[in-house]
Amino acid sequence: MTPLLNVKNLQTRFKSRQGYIYAVNDVSFHVLEGETLGVVGESGCGKSVTMLSLLKLLPPAARIEGGQAIFNGKNLLEMKTKQIRQVRGAQIGMIFQDPMSSLNPVVKIGVQMSEPLRAHLKMSKSQAWERSAQLLDMVGIPEAEARLHDYPHQLSGGMRQRVMIAMSLACKPKILIADEPTTALDVTIQAQIVDLVRDLRDELNTTIIWITHDLSLIAGFVDRVMVMYAGYIVEEAPVDDLYDDPRHPYTVGLFGALPEIGSTGQRRLTTIKGAPPNLESTPTCCPFVPRCGYATDKCHTTNPVLQPAPDAADPNHRLACWVDIRERRQA
Fold it and tell me: Are 36 and 201 in contact (CB under 8 A)?
């Protein structure tokens, strides 16, 4: 099956006073139509920058150094400003992490929602206003018509995030990128947002890329998981295979930090020792070496490439690690 989006060898750098920050390093992945991909990793691993690079929403200090992002037969990374603006919102939507900073605080909700409808779908003002009310109703906001006259500060955090979801789906994009959309919300609202996006995905057949640092949040939601560390993909697998058989020491560490609901024991949560690496140079060894309890001599000298995991239950399980940690975990 031909991927809806196919990214190859994406490289993104940030200019700093000391030189460059190597934020995204030769990242390659794809998503199929109707698929949901989870992108997991701690803050600073490059997951958000990867997706922002695709839509050219990077700050001035950032620069895409290489790679391809083929969508609808065209390379997003080669598009001019006018061309990429026609893609944003209309064909690839995005839900940002903090709706309060994403929504204009001095503009009414209805006006902000109407803009993409009028720009991309050429609706009249009245048509866009009516469609905006329908979208708010679709995402579960009561008294939708009245809410169009509200300013963002008049809505709760959960309602603001629902507004962002409605805006991102306004033009029925083929791909929806959700950048940690539940981070600032309490667990009850988090579950509601996840359920809402899942229902909308099933109803609209939208392809979703869900960025998060919480593996437990996406367990029953995504089809595949891509784990990132220091700007690299270190493991990728179908969700069931990854949860049943994590292979990279970093992935294992992330699972170890999750609490077990319903556990009768007093298991202490594990931590990943150390800190993320300095990204001011490309590593000559595995970037996880300083924090890894399984490292060998080869890990200290050569950076592993992403390749099929040996003896994995699923042939699509890929791994960037020199060590087979299964035997050592069982010992």
Answer: yes
Cα 288 to Cα 275: distance, rounded to the nearest angstrom: 10
DSSP letter string over 125-154?
A: HHHHHHHHHHHHHHTT-SSHHHHTTS-GGG
Q: Are residues 138 and 205 in the same domain?
A: yes
Quick one: average pLDDT of 70-79? 95
Q: Are 147 and 132 in contact (CB under 8 A)?
A: no
**Quick one: 256 and 145 in the same domain?**
no
Q: What is the value of pTM for the model shown?
A: 0.91
- The two structure tokens encoding residue 137: 């109703």
> Which residues constitute the domain of residue 316?
228-330
Element (DSSP H or E) covering residue 242: helix 239-244
Strand ranges (DSSP E) for 116-212? 175-179, 207-212
Where a domain ends, among 181, 196, 222?
222
The stretch 184-209 carries a mean pLDDT of 86
Asked whether residue 18 falls in the same domain as residue 110, the answer is: yes
How many domains does one find in the chain?
A: 2
Distance CA 90, CA 169 (A): 9
C-alpha dist (Å) from residue 309 to 27, 164, 230 = 17, 38, 20
pLDDT in tens, 237-247: 999 999 999 99
